[in-house]
């Protein structure tokens, strides 16, 4: 596989590893029950993305254990003082991630189309499960 292929996988792993960490941090702050349920589900979706991406990196001969999370993203999350800001941050992250996958899928020459589709499908299912809360947030 090309270096470009590994680059996308590495970036994806960094991003989703950061979101696993962010979910843990936000949950440790004892959020309201609805937000806690969303974060718990998001943690599971993000951990699945980490596992799938790490598996693909191993197949390409790149050791995923040497790839750290996106610390810049985690730092941004740590600076959010209110639950409303954290929820907006989560919502924004979901939509940026979905847009990234859609961009990759729109370019058939980009490697790992099957993985990007699988991860996009997982995120779409997550958004559907939590559409009420996410729609409410979008209306604010």
Key features of this structure:
140 residues; mainly alpha; Ferritin
Count of all domains: 1
The fraction of residues assigned to DSSP E strands is: under 5%
Largest sheet: none
> In the CATH classification, which architecture applies?
Up-down Bundle
CATH class descriptor: Mainly Alpha
Low-pLDDT runs: none
CATH superfamily: Ferritin, core subunit, four-helix bundle
Q: Kindly state the mean pLDDT as a whole number?
A: 92
What is the approximate shape? Answer: globular
What is the C-alpha radius of gyration, as a whole number of Å?
Answer: 15 Å
Description:
By secondary structure, the chain is mostly helical. It has one domain (3-139): Up-down Bundle (Ferritin). Helices cover 79% and strands 0% of the residues. The longest helix has 27 residues, at 33-59. The chain starts with a helix and ends with a helix. The mean pLDDT is 92.
């Amino acid at each position: 596989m090309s270096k470009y292929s590994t680059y996308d996988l590495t970036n994806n792993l960094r991003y989703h590893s950061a979101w696993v960490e962010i979910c843990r941090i936000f949950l440790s702050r004892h959020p309201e029950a609805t937000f806690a349920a969303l974060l718990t589900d998001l943690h599971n979706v993000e951990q699945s993305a980490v596992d799938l991406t790490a598996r693909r990196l191993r197949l390409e001969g790149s050791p995923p254990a040497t790839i750290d999370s996106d610390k810049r993203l985690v730092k941004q999350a740590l600076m959010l003082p209110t639950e409303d800001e954290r929820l907006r941050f989560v919502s924004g992250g979901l939509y940026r991630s979905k847009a990234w996958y859609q961009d990759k899928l729109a370019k058939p020459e980009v490697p790992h189309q099957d993985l990007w589709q699988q991860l996009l499908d997982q995120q779409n299912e997550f958004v559907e499960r939590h559409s009420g809360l996410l729609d409410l947030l979008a209306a604010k």
